[in-house]
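Minutes, project check-in

Agenda point 3 was the complex the collaborators sent over. CS summarized: two entities, 467 residues total, and the question is how they sit relative to each other. Sequences were read into the notes so everyone works from the same version.
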Amino acid sequence: MNGDPGSEKVEDIEIRLLLEAIYSQYHYDFRSYAMASIKRRLRQAREHLGFPTFSAMQESLLRDPALLPRLLGYLTVQVSEMFRDPSYFRALREKVVPHLRTYPSLKVWVAGCSTGEELYSLAILFREEGLEERTIFYATDINQDALHAAEAGIFGVDRIPLFTENHRKSGGKSSLSDYYQAAYGRVAFDKTLRRNVVFSDHSLVTDAVFGEMQLISCRNVMIYFDRALQDRALGLFRDSLARKGFLGLGAKESLRFSKHADAFADFVREERIYQRRFE
Amino acid sequence: MSAPRAEAVVIGASAGALEALSAILPALPARFPLPVMVVVHIPPDRRSLLAELFQAKCRVIVMEAEDKEPISPGTVYFAPADYHLLIEHDRTLSLSSDEPVLFSRPSIDVLFESAADAYGDALVAIVLTGANDDGAKGMRAVVEAGGRALVQTPESAFASAMPRAAIDLCPVARVMPLAAIAAYLLEV
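CS then shared the predicted structure for the full assembly.
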């Protein structure tokens, strides 16, 4: 794309250089993100942060580290829901949990956990299924602010009706209200839910394998990656899964276009739950 | 006509979409030379049946878009419920869970803006019936990139707000009834 001089639009050149600058100076690597979405987010950030051009934004960013977290807020924070796509959690509960019960100890990796909605969903599901005591959850993200929010486990009370409805549809065996306390327009989730959770800064782009997981859930994270980076992340998941471990993706994500497709078998096809092939 | 060869079609529709699309998509021949990407506003909690519904009526291939899918000619791709659909420069589809735009996910503006970016002047963008103003900004981006803009005649639309908003923002858009839009695509 940047082969012939003059063939690339000025804005595209600026974005490429900006991402290069962010990587060189701060080691956050967005260079292989799917360009259409990141461009949209960057344009939004540029407007809101008040820069006339990406070049101007780059200059400030290189000299002012305080600008970085503000920009990362635009580039990485995903607003999710608890039990988003209830049928996915129902499939975990009904089809994956019976296999997980056969292990004396379990490791679960929520990759790209953002502000924790998926993590708390899984923690509640595991408690309901009596697996919580033998499980260690690893919740990782590249955004420190998001990780802190996940660790705090506080959500707006306005989101609770949706979370509650999702939880019910997922086959929840308890009431979601058993797990939080409400005050001042917010709810705080029970801290015992994070008793077995390790929160950690980890990048699917630049960091290495996490060991021997029985389940990796990574939903709507890789849609932001280009195909080469998706392959890297999927390679990481392949190498991080125990034999016959499970991988859960977002409802519209698929391994079909990946070079690692052969390493996984469909487990619950319509829910995008895969199983590491036995080799 | 001196317009450059079109490489892709994008369509946005909201209230009344089913009927409007039924006047256009089934008219496309099996060997339609272009891909067609469609955003219809649908509630987030519902599995979209649009692709199945139209596959039964159409000669072109109709499917729900998947992330990273290479774009093929003669194929209609519907944005899935609760995801934005975007076009990459390398002619693949991308999905995103970014916030709704104008309360909509999928958003017509998001599709149109990314398609304008990827296809430039080789794009045909069509705004059909709808009750909000999604698609207007996206259509302006298409026009600014040199692409062609078609809008359903507001009077003939089930809901006229969306076509009107698009015309207001893009006065150069050609305004025509559904039958003429279908005929235009056969010539494109």
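Noted in discussion: Chain B has a mean pLDDT of 94.
Follow-up: revisit at the next meeting once the mutant set is ready.
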